[in-house]
Specification:
- The chain is about 15% helix and about 40% strand.
- It contains three helices and eleven strands.
- With about 240 residues, the chain is of the alpha+beta class.
- The radius of gyration is 26 Å and the shape is globular.
- Strand 3 and strand 4 (about 105-115) form a beta hairpin.
- The protein has an eleven-stranded antiparallel sheet, covered by helices on one side.
- The chain starts with a helix and ends in a 13-residue tail after the last strand.
Length: about 240
């Protein structure tokens, strides 16, 4: 056997060993499973997956911030400033809302369990049935007919804005619009105009909803809803009244 042939055999053996150890070749040339980044996927596909994830989410913590003016009554005397609490399926919420009446701002506690609604008295702090005209119910986020899922499914001209960091979470940002009647119950009729701007941010890995913004046209009132603690244990019970 000549030296050239012997060298060729050795090189062939080394090459075979290298391929066996790394059958995909260089990692830089093979990105793994080849999954398309979520921000490059069709927007309809992202929405379908996000709605499916929301529909299976049992609990979540929410924080509502309002930039602008939101009245909860037709006389425009009761103004909702913010709210925070926990949601649980099928349609329950326990929350605290900041409400302004004239020049006084008060915190009231709310519990909604299905069709039963409770609220603490503005003056005494005692629990009682919520007034019939108190229409803000955060639990409607979970509704199969008026909640977050139907809002997403009805988005007009949805588009992917891109990937963004939201409160330390890697998210994908979508944008679109809906008619105001689509969110009338969800916002107690406080967001009006046509169309209503919708921005929504999903966790890029889990597709959990992280933030939702609803904006009146022409620089009007904006509702910002932050969601966290998805599927963490939550117990909501009716108060003693």
């Amino acid at each position: 056997m000549t030296r050239i042939v012997a060298t060729a055999l050795v090189l062939a053996a080394l090459l075979t060993t290298a391929v066996a150890c790394n059958p995909l070749g260089d990692d830089d040339d093979n990105p793994g499973d080849g999954e398309v980044p979520i921000e490059q996927q069709p927007v309809e596909q992202i929405i379908d997956r996000a709605v499916a994830r929301w529909d299976e989410t049992e609990t979540a913590h929410f924080v509502l911030e309002i930039d602008g003016t939101t009245f909860l009554d037709t006389q425009e005397q009761i103004q909702l400033s913010s709210a925070e609490g926990d949601l649980a399926r099928p349609q329950s919420v326990e929350a605290t809302a900041s409400i302004a009446i004239s020049l006084v701002t008060l915190d009231v506690s709310l519990i909604f369990i299905g069709d039963d609604a409770y609220m603490t008295d503005f003056l005494t702090g005692s629990w009682g049935p919520a007034p019939d005209d108190f229409s803000y119910n955060p639990a409607l986020l979970l509704s199969q007919t008026e909640g977050l899922g139907p809002v997403l499914r009805s988005l007009q001209d949805p588009e992917v804005v891109g990937r963004e960091d939201v409160d330390g979470v890697d998210t994908v940002h979508l944008r679109g619009s809906v008619s105001d009647d689509q969110i009338e119950d969800l916002t107690a009729g406080a967001i009006t105009g046509d169309p209503i701007g919708v921005d929504i941010w999903f966790d890029a890995q889990t597709l959990d909803v992280v933030r939702l913004a609803l904006a009146e046209p022409e620089d009007g009132t904006v509702w910002i809803i932050r969601l966290s603690g998805h599927d963490e244990p939550v117990t909501i019970e009716a108060p003693d009244v």
